Amino acid sequence: GQSLEQPSEVTAVEGAIVQMNCTYQTSGFYGLSWYQQHDGGAPTFLSYNALDGLEETGRFSSFLSRSDSYGYLLLQELQMKDSASYFCAVTYGNKLVFGAGTILRVKS
Amino acid sequence: GAGVSQSPSNKVTEKGKDVELRCDPISGHTALYWYRQSLGQGLEFLIYFQGNSAPDKSGLPSDRFSAERTGGSVSTLTIQRTQQEDSAVYLCASTELHTGTGELFFGEGSRLTVL
User: What are phi and psi of A80, to 5 degrees?
Assistant: First the structure.
């Protein structure tokens, strides 16, 4: 089966940089995605890594290393509105398999 | 519509009753997914539709759960004889063709509470 591990919670200060990790025990997946979900809201897509390396979209960057079975989401210039849950997911066959998510708390 | 629409947004039911949850995907999206999210947990895959057919039903937790999709658009998830452990947020997502870009468009979910 597919298994993704994420830290349950991360706290950081407004303006700082935070890295949220995702390790997995699976193979044969097409890529690694990241989603953001605010309390009571819909998960929204942030980024996708089909290949190893770094993908950058504004303040968000995502990294994948298949050889290390590891990925991360990097958020720069943290803002209070970034407080949310962040999920990694692997594309496996025709579906996405999600990790349990990391709650990010941004303090002023 | 502009996004994925789900109804009802909240449903409270008694144990043993049947419930139906509805999903209106983004127009033109052929792939449709149902996920379940329990409090503080990740998203658990339930079923995937491509058009009106469901090539992957592997996530349905029991035969009390069923889903259908008609006209390549609206989908209904039915839970029969609800149990307290069915309490969760049921999320629907759609995408244009398949998950090649890793991007699904989610609705805000139907929160089900079974008393």
Answer: -55, -35
Tokens in use for A47?
């980024």
B91/A98 CB distance under 8 A: no
What SS3 state is found at B37? Answer: strand
pLDDT, one tens digit per residue, over B60-89 is 999 999 999 998 899 999 999 999 999 999
Q: What is the pLDDT of residues A56-107, one digit of tens each?
A: 999 999 999 999 999 999 999 999 999 999 999 998 888 899 999 999 999 9
In chain B, the residue whose alpha carbon lies closest to the alpha carbon of A6 is B42
Nearest to B102 among A31, A40, A100 (CB): A31
Calculate how close chain A gets to B28, using CA atoms only, in Å: 18
Nearest to residue A50, comparing CAs of B107, B13, B100, B12? Answer: B100
